[in-house]
Amino acid sequence: MSPLQIKHGSSKHSAYDLRDPNAEVLETHTLAAVVDNESGVLARVIGLFSGRGYNIDSLTVAEIDHTGHLSRITIVTTGTPQVIVQIKAQLERMVVVHEVHDLTAEGPSVQRELALFKVAGKGEHRIEALRLAEIFRANVVDSTLESFVFEMTGTPEKVDAFAELMRPLGLIEIARTGVAAVARGR
C-alpha cells in the first residue's frame, strides 16, 4: 500500500487531484427560445445574460414564422445546474419570449454548425489538407494557387477537430455560424 493510500485509507485519492470535491459541476446546455421578431429582442435576451455574468458559448438567431413575426434564438451556455434553471426561468418571464426549451435536458437533439476554413499551403500541406477535407466531408468552395476555403457542417466537436488538424497545415481563418439545434423525435 502506498503512503497516500495509508493516509487516506483508499486508493481513490490522488495528490494530483486538486479539484474541490464540494464544487458544483459545470454543464453545457442548448436552449431554444421562440421570440417576437422585432427590434431590440435580441439585445434584451443578451442583456439578461451579460447583466448576470452568464456566458454565451454559441448564439444563432433566425426568423421561423414570417407571418407570425417569430424568430428562434438558439443559445449554448455553460453553468451549474442551478444557473441553467435560473437562466431558463428568467427567459420564460420575458414578455417577448413565447416558449423556451432546454434541448439538453429534454432528451436527444440534433446539433449542427456550419463553418468555413481558409487554409493556405503549398505542396504536401496542400495535398494533406485536401485529404483531410475528404475524410471530414468538407467541400472546397473556393480555391486559388495558394489557398482553399473549405465548407463543413457537423457537430461543434467535429468542427473543432477539423480546425485542430488544419492548424499545422496553414489554417489562417475560421468563420462559424454557431449551433443550430432541434429535438429528435416528436
Automatic annotation (TrEMBL):
<dbReference type="InterPro" id="IPR027271">
    <property type="entry name" value="Acetolactate_synth/TF_NikR_C"/>
</dbReference>
<keyword id="KW-0100">Branched-chain amino acid biosynthesis</keyword>
<feature type="domain" description="ACT">
    <location>
        <begin position="30"/>
        <end position="105"/>
    </location>
</feature>
<dbReference type="InterPro" id="IPR054480">
    <property type="entry name" value="AHAS_small-like_ACT"/>
</dbReference>
<dbReference type="InterPro" id="IPR002912">
    <property type="entry name" value="ACT_dom"/>
</dbReference>
<dbReference type="Pfam" id="PF10369">
    <property type="entry name" value="ALS_ss_C"/>
</dbReference>
<dbReference type="InterPro" id="IPR004789">
    <property type="entry name" value="Acetalactate_synth_ssu"/>
</dbReference>
<dbReference type="InterPro" id="IPR019455">
    <property type="entry name" value="Acetolactate_synth_ssu_C"/>
</dbReference>
<comment type="subunit">
    <text>Dimer of large and small chains.</text>
</comment>
<dbReference type="GO" id="GO:0005829">
    <property type="term" value="C:cytosol"/>
</dbReference>
<comment type="similarity">
    <text>Belongs to the acetolactate synthase small subunit family.</text>
</comment>
<comment type="pathway">
    <text>Amino-acid biosynthesis; L-isoleucine biosynthesis; L-isoleucine from 2-oxobutanoate: step 1/4.</text>
</comment>
<dbReference type="InterPro" id="IPR039557">
    <property type="entry name" value="AHAS_ACT"/>
</dbReference>
<keyword id="KW-0808">Transferase</keyword>
<dbReference type="GO" id="GO:1990610">
    <property type="term" value="F:acetolactate synthase regulator activity"/>
</dbReference>
<keyword id="KW-0028">Amino-acid biosynthesis</keyword>
<comment type="pathway">
    <text>Amino-acid biosynthesis; L-valine biosynthesis; L-valine from pyruvate: step 1/4.</text>
</comment>
<dbReference type="GO" id="GO:0009097">
    <property type="term" value="P:isoleucine biosynthetic process"/>
</dbReference>
<protein>
    <recommendedName>
        <fullName>Acetolactate synthase small subunit</fullName>
        <ecNumber>2.2.1.6</ecNumber>
    </recommendedName>
</protein>
<comment type="function">
    <text>Catalyzes the conversion of 2 pyruvate molecules into acetolactate in the first common step of the biosynthetic pathway of the branched-amino acids such as leucine, isoleucine, and valine.</text>
</comment>
<dbReference type="InterPro" id="IPR045865">
    <property type="entry name" value="ACT-like_dom_sf"/>
</dbReference>
<dbReference type="GO" id="GO:0003984">
    <property type="term" value="F:acetolactate synthase activity"/>
</dbReference>
<dbReference type="Pfam" id="PF22629">
    <property type="entry name" value="ACT_AHAS_ss"/>
</dbReference>
<dbReference type="GO" id="GO:0009099">
    <property type="term" value="P:L-valine biosynthetic process"/>
</dbReference>
